[in-house]
What we know:
This protein is mainly alpha-helical. It has one domain (2-113). It is built from six helices and no strands. The longest helix has 21 residues, at 54-74.
Amino acid sequence: MIIFATIGLFAFILGPEGLFTGSWQTVIGHIISGGAMLGAIYMATDYSSTPGTKAGENLFALGVGLLVVLFRFFGFTNEGMSYAILIMNCFTPLIDRFLRLRILGEGKKTPFNLKIMS
């Protein structure tokens, strides 16, 4: 759902004739065109390559939606869903590292929940 909302929001902001010139036809067209629906429903929800926390999943979906719109407006191809998912899959370990849950009894929190060897 976050992927669709991000695609719709940025399709409106980066409208066809300039900033904030997108109509509802443009927004709906970007959401249902190409592989956006299939990619958001089937490919981006793969358990083996998405972050483990809910906040990580939301950040992953936001990144996929933003990259899809950037590829569509500024890229050489009209479709960028598969590229966006692959790029965000590369960032999954980093997202999991920064947004991991604290283990019970782990001690005090450090910045970005990093484990400091002492």
